[in-house]
Amino acid sequence: MELLCIRQWISGLLPTWLSAWCIKPVGGALVRQEPEYILLALMGSPLKKIMLCSSEKEIFSVEEQVMVQHSVIINNMIEDGSYNHEESKIPLDCVDSKTLKKVIDYCTHHTHHHNDNQEDLEAWDAQFLNVDSNGLYDLLMAANYLEIRNLLDLIYGTIKNMIKGKKIDEIRRIFNIKDHGFTPEEEEQNRKEYPHFY
Amino acid sequence: MEDGDYSIRRWEDLDIDILVKIFQLLDIFELTAGIAHVCSAWRMACCDPLLWKTLDLSMLKSNFIKIPLEPFVYVDGRSDRKLTRLLKISLSLSRQSIMTLIFHFNLYVSDEQLTYTAERCPKLRRLVLPAWNRIKKTGMCKAIRGWKDLESLTMPSIANPPYLLEEISNHCKNFSELKIMGPCDIYFASSLVAFLPKLKVLSLRCSMLYKDVLIEILDRLQHLEVLNISHCILMEAVPPPQHKRVVREIDQSIRQKASRLREFITCMDDNCIMCNRTRTDEGLVRWYKYEEGLWKADEVRSLAL
Q1: Of A133, A140, A168, the CB nearest to B37
Q2: Is A33 among the domain residues?
């Protein structure tokens, strides 16, 4: 039976008060979830999978609930019905396989371990982001594109810690900024005026 | 495998919204420590108005000593230069977008520093003043003249000369909110009535307040909507030999006058910590003795920091 028909059938049966406590996490925030989906999840297949396709055309199969809980973009695609479970895969042309695998890793871990204590989760996150600056950049782009709020906040915090307290030459080295975009005169003037920042 | 595409990860080309979100996590010292000089894109992000709606310098206090001559306080040169440097960079990056400016009441800002700052925050709406011993009348007036959009002012307890209120009444047409961290006597209340008759919000918390001053305020500030006298020691004048005595509770006539206010906030409780502290400090709370940041609290939401 078509997903949309099941939805309509169920919503006809449900009392409105049920909507009040149907809340789920999406993209790291809490969002009201239509009760029909909750019931479907309870009834049928909570382990339903979806297919994600990297820029290198590699297909990754992942639990629908995992991605829907973390990525606002994927959640919207599934909810508005543009994703057909039988046939389609979600093409992610700006995310390469290596990065996509890591993103899936993050979402999966946080879904399955969301009841872990704060310290353990933070330790896992720290280990997860123990990558070089290229890897960090790619993860940032992917999390931004997929709108994964908690991963984005985590990366922002990591970058902030990489910046704070460092001298300008060191920051340029860490982030491989070769072309600073200032004229030679501007750069010289800045160095003269604020030597202790460099 | 990993090092192949070095050239395509250009951190200097990061989307400006992402850069701004990251820079919002930095405190004012970190933000002004050269981030804007890393590259031109980062400089543009550092100037984003989102970062400069509020400039909070309340963690800065002067290294000073009291002296017997005017201005009665001497600020160590290094401490002064540090503030000047911070102001220079912050005000340059902020590009006139600052709307709220917060100083610590123990920061002894110089006349030049205030003038420099005022010229670069023309859109200022809310000001929490620093200590103003070193600021001359001319400097203060010139600053206020430039703040046409000023709505809210918090003053420390050093002095309450009426010229300040007069200047505000002439130049700040939207001014509506005032907090005084110190005693409000009858002369000050009269100045309020004379120069700020349209005042909407007034906080006089944690100080000594005479009953006749309170009545004057309630009677004459017809546009007042919110009045906060929490933890104040309410006094009234009585015949000698006592001359004055503490009023233990707010009587019906005052409550009647205050009934037109949207919010009349009081606290006169022997068990209240702040009430006790105000009493111990005889109506002029020595905020430096207590927890860091205690002075920032206010029962009026728009005045709390």
Answers
A1: A168
A2: yes
Global pTM reads 0.81
Peptide bond into A15 cis (omega under 30): no
Note whether residue A15 is domain-resident: yes
DSSP B23-83: HTTS-HHHHTSSGGGT-HHHHHHHT-GGGSSEEE-TT----EEE-SSTTSEEE-HHHHHHH
What ranges in A84-176 are assigned the alpha helix state H? Answer: 97-112, 118-128, 133-146, 149-163, 168-174
Q: Residue A34 belongs to what domain range? A: 2-42
**Nearest CA distance, A191 vs chain B (angstrom):** 9
Q: Which of residues 80-139 of A touch B (CB under 8 A)?
A: 132-135, 137-138
Beta bridge partners of B234: B209
Q: Of B9, B18, B35, which is closest to A144 when you measure between CB atoms?
A: B18
Q: Which fold has domain B9-51?
A: Monooxygenase (1.20.1280)
Nearest to B38 among A137, A180, A194 (CB): A180
Contact B161, B187 (CB under 8 A): no
Residue A127 lies in a domain: no
Q: Strand pairing of B64-66 and B73-75?
A: antiparallel
Classify B192 as helix, strand or coil.
helix
Compare all CA atoms of chain A with the CA of B34 and give the residue at the minimum distance. Answer: A197
Q: What is this model's ipTM?
A: 0.77
Q: Which of A148, A166, A43 is nearest to A99 (CA)?
A: A148
Segment B195-219, tens digit of pLDDT: 999 999 999 999 999 999 999 999 9
Structural domains in chain A (count): 1
Does residue A177 belong to the interface with chain B, where contact is any CB pair within 8 Å?
A: yes
What letter does residue B108 receive in the DSSP assignment? B
- Taking 70 as the pLDDT cut, the residues of chain A under it are 1-46, 84-87
* Distances, alpha carbon B170 to alpha carbons B120, B148, B246, in Å: 21, 9, 37
* B22 contacts chain A (CB < 8 A): yes
- C-alpha B98/C-alpha B120 separation (Å) is 9
- Tell me if B18 and A140 make a contact (CB, 8 A cut-off): yes
Quick check: B9 and A139 in contact, CB under 8 A? Answer: no
Q: Is there a domain that residue A11 lies in?
A: yes
Residue B3 pLDDT: 44
